[in-house]
Amino acid sequence: MLRIDLASKVPVYEQIASGLRAELVAGRFGPGDKLPTVRALAIDLGVHHNTVAEAYRELAGEGWLELKRHRGATVRERRAAPNRSEGPEKFTRPLRELLAKALAEGLSRKSLIRELIDSARRLEEGGL
Amino acid sequence: MNPTLVVRVVLLALGAFSAIVHWFLPRLTRPDLYFAVTVAAEFRDSTAGRLILRQYRRELVGASAVTLALLGTLVLTPAFRIAPLALLLQLGAYFAVYYRARRLVLPNAVAPTTIREARIGTPARQIPGGWMTASGPFALLFACAGYLAAHWQQIPARLVLHFGANGAPNRWAARSIGTAFLPIFIATVILLALTFLLYGMAHWLRPIYAGGSQGEHESRFRRAASIVLLVMEYWIAALFSYLAIRPLLPPSLERPPVAIAMVAGLIAIAGSAVLMWLGQGGSRVPSQQRSGTGSAGPVGDRTEDRFWKLGVFYFNRNDPAVMVERRFGIGYTVNFAHPIAWIIILLPLLAIVTATTTIAVRHAVR
Q1: What is the distance between the alpha carbons of residues B169 and B163, in angstroms, rounded to a whole number?
Q2: Domain count of chain A?
Q3: CA distance linking residue B230 with residue A39, whole number of Å
Q4: Among candidates B340, B359, B319, which has minimal Cα distance to B192?
Q5: Are residues A69 and A113 in the same domain?
Q6: Is B120's Cβ below 8 Å from some Cβ in A?
Q7: pTM surpassing 0.90?
Q8: ipTM
Q9: How far is B95 from chain A (nearest CA, A)?
């Protein structure tokens, strides 16, 4: 199930891409599986089709999807992440911001570490 | 059976059914939509909510008494041909009653949730029975057109263009391709518009809940509504095929077309009753089985109140959905900001009026 929040500060296309990426990492879709067409997903989510197309393009850029005109998006075989120019610092900053927010709201460091490890394990095992 | 008697009975049945439906309508919508306004789910059962409903029903009874009395009077007199006007008056009066109740609900409006959800990985929604079933009515018309062409020489020189309420023909036109095939043309245009709607219900409609018991109810309702529409399509194809080949039938097989057409009214009543029983979009799902929204605010139909003109007409340029659930009523309506919606509504009307008027003017005979 893909869920987005139109009131969130995170751009909608990023929310869509994140939701789909989580499904792909969890192995919900295998190579060759079709994703909904841009138009169908835009109608279901009530957003402009350019927003969905942008999310699909982002996932295609990461090597998850193959986009063909009039044929929708197909999941690709993605054995390893493509070479990226940025290092892990791309994720460090948002993670640090999220951690600061959680600590500021009173969550303990121990519970945060446990949650992080559990979430990663669930993703690897195919759950979310 | 006397054809005018059938017409009178069906008109009265439509009036009575409309009154019954409007009595229950405020309770047939989603719990967080009350008189087409997004409210907290518990509002309808609050004291204020019940008071509004009581006033609505009191005024509805008054409007029904007046309009049904008028309908009854017209139906029982020779002036029954104008009785459909009483049905229109009845709908107008009901709209006024609904609108008064809506104005009382508006101060209690709340913003709906901003959460949207979609199910990924499920097969694309289809028309029940697929395209084979949907093309059946067109095949029937095609076969009928072939039959007419094959028996062209046997078609009388003068064809009936219009029937009176008593089932007797009252306007004729000279035989021509346009005149003979007019019923086939009209039926094809109507069926194309209905097939667009059928397709739209499968592909242009946003599910409110992507899963859970409400999602399942929603899918069941959508399927039932599609089947009702399909039955109507088959009925229309059969009726117009009959009208087209009527001049070739022996007198013993002739039936008054008005009475046959009125059966469509009974199909509409039966279809509406089934949909009411199922409940719009899972409105009959018990409250304890309803899933949460994941954010503050009721779910409603995931559209904002400001896009609903008078609570009845949906007009939202930023919504890619061509069709949406009705907020006060059973079934679906179109997004009037979408050009396809106007094509579905206006083009068939324009085509039918143009074709009928042209033939009536050019080929009319006494």
Answers
A1: 4
A2: 2
A3: 25
A4: B340
A5: no
A6: yes
A7: no
A8: 0.77
A9: 29
